[in-house]
Amino acid sequence: MTPIPRSVSIFGATGSIGESTFDLLMRAGGPDAFRTVALTGARNVARLAEMARALRAEVAVTADPACLPALRDALAGSGVEAAAGEAALIEAADRPADWVMSAIVGFAGLAPGLAALRHGRTLALANKESLVTAGPLLMETAKAHGARILPVDSEHSAVFQALAGEEIAAVERIIITASGGAFRDWPLERLAGATVAQASTHPNWAMGQRITIDSASMFNKALEVIETREYFGVPPEMIEVLVHPESLVHAMVGFRDGALMAHLGAPDMRHAIGYALNWPERGHLPVARLDLAQIGRLSFAAPDPARYPALTLAREVMAIRGLAGAVFNAAKEAALDGFIAGQIPFPAMAGVVEEVLARMSAQTGLGIATISLDNLQGADREARGLAGAVIASARM
Ligand code: NDP
Ligand code: MG
């Protein structure tokens, strides 16, 4: 049996996933049970310092160099090192830790995750953008260095659990569920007037603001379809999305004998995080137990492509592969910034991403075979720039 990890790092400790991970570590004994190597955050240095003190981390890193003096002040006398910037994040990922949580939001999470994999660590992967932008690179790096990636996204953790003891060759289909987000029941014509506050309210899950808005647009599910393709290596046509408003069934795996294995649980990320933390064992986790008699019924529906155009775009990305995932993710992030800043209405986000994908694949042909951190960063920058231009022209 594999022992519970002795040394851990959390990248993105101050975020929603980071806080849940911290909570589990503290409940499991905190500094008495784990040696915490690195904790990282960006702007919220007060909380980062608090967590680093509580877990007696070796080093606390803020991604933002301007926040370093504040972090140093907050850590004064604690014995925790303070560092800042992208290079410091990589340096933190180079430090030996058995189990590394990758929970930075966005493309910024990729480089530290890759660094941890190069050292053969177990990477608990919440940062879905890593798989979407660089799936083959991530999986090959893990393989080459004997590292392991454990999925933390709830749907992927559910699939992973449904697959325990099974052969991927016996799988016929993978179904990931979606709540349908904040606007599931809105008339389509009202979406153009949706506000940021309205889009930032999730019916079932408490998450960071960006992923909550991505749930309303289903860009989050689009990322997850690609994530499923990259992590489990199944062809796109085997992956289905099902709207399930209760968010209790997280995913289902269909086998060639017709069996469908469903994973159910309360919508609480501490389940998926805790599963990755205790894997291959199951630990006791502080998540609510489902009372199905009380819940009574579960409902399912096919997603409406007119309401959720992001799902169609995900199919295009999977058909192209190469740099398409990086372009899709970057254009999506830029479109989301545009929506949050009030520059474009909610339904225009999909149009921006579609246009950036179309223009960039016409110009450069995104389906190249070999991706590297360098060409991904280039594609990311170019797609953000182009999305900015598309947004600006849409405003004129
Ligand atoms: P949050 O926005 O809550 O937290 C993001 C974390 O990343 C914070 O620690 C933040 O620091 C840090 N951060 C922000 N920008 C940068 C940057 N440029 N460089 C380095 N660090 C940065 O996100 P979530 O916790 O919601 O999500 C984290 C990841 O997990 C995402 O990839 C998301 O898609 C995925 N995920 C999240 C789920 C959820 O339930 N929340 C579910 C499934 C997947 P600070 O706050 O100090 O500024
Ligand atoms: Mg998810």
From TrEMBL:
**From what organism does this protein derive?**
Frigidibacter mobilis
Please name the InterPro entries in this protein's record. DXP_reductoisomerase, DXP_reductoisomerase_C, DXP_reductoisomerase_N, DXPR_C, DXPR_C_sf, NAD(P)-bd_dom_sf
Gene this chain is encoded by:
dxr
> Where do the annotations place NADPH binding?
T14, G15, S16, I17, A42, R43, N44, N127, E129, G208
Relate the protein's function as given in its record.
Catalyzes the NADPH-dependent rearrangement and reduction of 1-deoxy-D-xylulose-5-phosphate (DXP) to 2-C-methyl-D-erythritol 4-phosphate (MEP).
Name the needed cofactors.
Mg(2+); Mn(2+)
Q: Which GO terms describe its biological process?
A: isopentenyl diphosphate biosynthetic process, methylerythritol 4-phosphate pathway involved in terpenoid biosynthetic process
Domain spans labelled 1-deoxy-D-xylulose 5-phosphate reductoisomerase C-terminal: 149-232
Q: Summarize where Mn(2+) binds, as residue positions.
A: D153, E155, E224
The record's catalysed reaction(s) read: 2-C-methyl-D-erythritol 4-phosphate + NADP(+) = 1-deoxy-D-xylulose 5-phosphate + NADPH + H(+)
Q: Which NCBIfam families match?
A: Dxr (TIGR00243)
> Which Gene3D superfamilies does the UniProt entry name for this protein?
1.10.1740.10, NAD(P)-binding Rossmann-like Domain
GO MF annotations for this entry? Answer: 1-deoxy-D-xylulose-5-phosphate reductoisomerase activity; isomerase activity; manganese ion binding; NADPH binding
- Report the pathway entry: Isoprenoid biosynthesis; isopentenyl diphosphate biosynthesis via DXP pathway; isopentenyl diphosphate from 1-deoxy-D-xylulose 5-phosphate: step 1/6
Task: Give the coiled coil ranges.
Answer: none
Stated name of the protein: 1-deoxy-D-xylulose 5-phosphate reductoisomerase
| Domain annotation 1-deoxy-D-xylulose 5-phosphate reductoisomerase N-terminal: ranges | 8-135
Per the record, the similarity remark reads:
Belongs to the DXR family.
Q: What EC number(s) is this enzyme filed under?
A: 1.1.1.267
List residues of the DXP reductoisomerase C-terminal domain.
264-384
What does the entry list as the binding residues for 1-deoxy-D-xylulose 5-phosphate? K128, S154, E155, S179, H202, S215, N220, K221, E224
Under Pfam families, the record lists: DXP_redisom_C, DXP_reductoisom, DXPR_C
- Identify the keywords attached in UniProt to this record, alphabetized: Isomerase, Isoprene biosynthesis, Magnesium, Manganese, Metal-binding, NADP, Oxidoreductase
